[in-house]
Every structure is written in structure tokens, then in C-alpha cells.
Amino acid sequence: MPTSAGPRRVVVTGLGAVTPIGNDVESYRQALCAGVNGVGPITHFDASHHGCRFAAEVKDFDPSGHLDRKETRRWERFCQFGVVTAKQALAQSGLKITEDNADRVGVLIGSGIGGVLLMETQALVMDKRGPDRVSPFTVPMMIPNMAAGLTAIALGTQGPSNAVCTACAAGSNAIGDAFRVIQYGDADAMVCGGTESPISPLSVAGFASARALSCRNEDPAHASRPFDAERDGFVIGEGSGMLILEELSHAQARDARILAEVIGYGSTCDAHHVTAPPAGGGPAAKAMARCLADGRLEPSQVDYVNAHGTSTEANDKTETAAIKMALGDDTAHSIPVSSTKSMTGHLLGGSGGIEAVATVLALTHGFVPPTINHVTPDPDCDLDYVPNEARELAVNVALSNSFGFGGHNVCLAFRRWS
């Protein structure tokens, strides 16, 4: 439980990543530094009749080292991503889960839409072949919480287990909520992050119909261009990012390598519109301000902001305004802000997971990832977006923003461990 000295301190001891630009943390880090573009034509299904025919797919994903053949065949892709990245993170952390500590280790994973492809395919099965031919795995494999459930089963964790479904803020909410679980003494360690596999005919058609997706089919490599004046929508992506969080003394007692410290978490709601943020970004700015207050940080202490940066007209200018409101105009203009979605696309509920991993990597390796495809300045987006090339920089404190449909706003703060 929290003591008179304050809540328990929480540190990061492990990372896992399966992304459109790398299927492990080191590959992902190298790709971020190099500004690798993960966007290309859709191969998961025939998209020839779709308005948008490209996405940021995970390439050459092989779960065989982590899952057996039966699990690979039955589990939905978002669950496979989640379990694989959780195992990667656990391996890096060196944490051993035993009968003695299993009830002190928990799982908290976010996903925006879960097994959407399974829902689509089984709906077609029922329509064409009748209800008796629907797979018995339909319900357990389509529900968004199953990534958390299967991860707990795979790792043997018996502590707090939960799933967050706050659209594109889900991964960050999961990390922030796991942070709170440890702070308040309900667990000593948590596996947390986000996972998503939304590249399906219905998802792509739905987002395109809502005019949220870029339809730059003739040039998909330059379609994801956050904060650029010529942006025309986001690029849908898939993948997963996981962190192992531990209470500080618990990690120190086993001589764990500490990567970073989680120091702040802020969350608000726009209460404004189903999909659009309010002009000016007030509630998003308040989430950032609450995060700073939670971490006892002054704006001048922030060295880097990993932006939500979706490459949509509404988000990018609203987030820019929110950053300036939360940090102060002068401070905001002096801090590098970048969107790794320019490389990975937008993983919806998985984005907060891989972006938290990117933020921790920035702290541990002393660099700021670039915003690639940033060519044409936008007067409404006038911050330092680290255009096109990574930047070497000693990053001591970094923020990571995530915003979701329904008006969910989340900000996380991390500090370099020294």
C-alpha cells in the first residue's frame, strides 16, 4: 500500500515489440533510428475494390518459438501478437513467475476492437453455410479481453488481470492502469501494453468510409505524414508492444536491469464527439497537465514528446495546440515532438504499447525518433517534429500521448534510470 512517503515507485524492466518495422525490440529500435517505412500494399486480403488498398502490416511474423501449432491455428492474430511480445518482455526482464509469486504478478492489456477479422469471416460462414457451421472459438477469440486472458494463461500469472478497450488510447490506458495497480500495492509486477490486428475488409472499408484513412494508393510509402500540410488521413497498422512494470524495491531485490521509471499518468475525456476532438485541445492538454502533476514535473523538465500524431487533419493541429497549452508556448517550441506512426502506421489500441516502447528506447539509447514524410509545413502545426531523420539527444524525461475515439485522452511520463 502507499506509505506516508507517497505511492510505491514503478520501473520498467522488460520490453517486447512486434511491429510493421521490426518483430523484436532491437529490430524495432534500429528501424526507428533509420526512419524505416512499414507501409505497403495490403496482402492480408484482396483490397482491389477498396478505396484504400495499403496498410502497415507486420511482416514475416513467426510465432513458432513462442506458440505451438494448435495455438497458432486457433488464436486470433492480436492474441498471438500479445502473447509473443509479453514473452519477449518477460525474457528481457529476467522475472521468474513461480507458485510463490504468481498472485503478485498481473496482466493488463489494451485492444481497440479485438478479433474483428474472425467476426467477419464467421459471419460469412453463418450466412453461406448456416449457424451450425460457426466455429466454437468465435466468441472466445473475438472478445478484446482474450489477449490479456491468454497472456495470463501462457505466463502463469494469477494477480490482477484486466483488459482496456478505450479505442486508440487502450494501450496507454493499460500501461497507466498497471502503473496504478503497482503503486497501490495490489501487485509487485505487471505485464502491460496494447495489441491489435485490425487489417480486415470491414475495418478498412469502415475507416475509409468515415474519411479517416489516407487514400494515397499511388504512393503509400508517403501516406502517413503526421503534422504535414498535405496529410490526408491515417494508415491502419497492426502489432503489439508490451512492458514489464515492477515495484522498485522488488526489481532491485532481484538485481534486475532497470530501463526507465514510470513517473506520471494523466487521463481525461473530451465529452464532445464520437470521433472528432474539440478545437483547441483543452481536455487533451489537461491529461498532459495531470500527467506532469502526477510526476511532479515542470514543463521545462520534459525533453521529448512521443505524439499521438495520426496524420489526420483534426488530430495533428489539435494535439499541437494541446501540447502548447500544457507545456507553455515557449517551452513547447523548444522540445522535440515526433510521431512514430509516420513509420508504423496507426495500430489503434496497440499504438500506445509500441509507442511506450519507443519512448523507453529513446530514454535508454539517447535518441529521438523522426517524423518521416514531413515535407510541407502546416501553419497550424508549428512545433519541432524532428523531420525525416532521427536525432541524437540525451532524453531524461519523455511523455507519450494517446487519444481515442469517444474522446479518451491519455498521457504517460517516463524518466531515464540512472
Description:
This protein is of the alpha/beta class. It has two domains: 10-253, Peroxisomal Thiolase, Chain A, domain 1 (3-Layer(aba) Sandwich), CATH 3.40.47.10; 266-416, 3-Layer(aba) Sandwich (Peroxisomal Thiolase, Chain A, domain 1). Helix content is 34%, strand content 18%. It contains 14 helices and 14 strands. The protein has helices at 25-34, 69-74, 77-93, 116-129, 138-142, 146-155, 170-183, 201-209, 248-253, 282-294, 313-327, 329-334, 341-344, 351-365; strands at 10-18, 40-41, 54-55, 105-110, 161-164, 189-196, 239-247, 260-269, 304-306, 337-338, 367-368, 391-392, 397-404, 408-416. A ten-stranded mixed sheet has the order 5-4-6-7-1-8-14-13-9-10, with helices on both faces. It is globular and about 60 Å long. The model has no long low-confidence stretch (mean pLDDT 96).
What are the defining features of this structure?
about 425 residues; alpha/beta; Peroxisomal Thiolase, Chain A, domain 1; 2 domains; 10-stranded mixed beta sheet; two-stranded antiparallel ribbon; 14 helices; about 35% helix; about 20% strand
Strand content: 15-25%
Rg is 20 Å
CATH-defined topology of the largest domain: Peroxisomal Thiolase, Chain A, domain 1
Note the quaternary state here. Answer: single chain
CATH architecture group name of the largest domain: 3-Layer(aba) Sandwich
- The total strand number stands at 14
Structural class: alpha/beta
EC number: 2.3.1.179
InterPro entries: 3-oxoacyl-ACP_synth-2, Beta-ketoacyl_synthase, Ketoacyl_synth_AS, Ketoacyl_synth_C, Ketoacyl_synth_N, PKS_Beta-ketoAc_synthase_dom, Thiolase-like
Domain Ketosynthase family 3 (KS3): 7-416
Family: Belongs to the thiolase-like superfamily. Beta-ketoacyl-ACP synthases family.
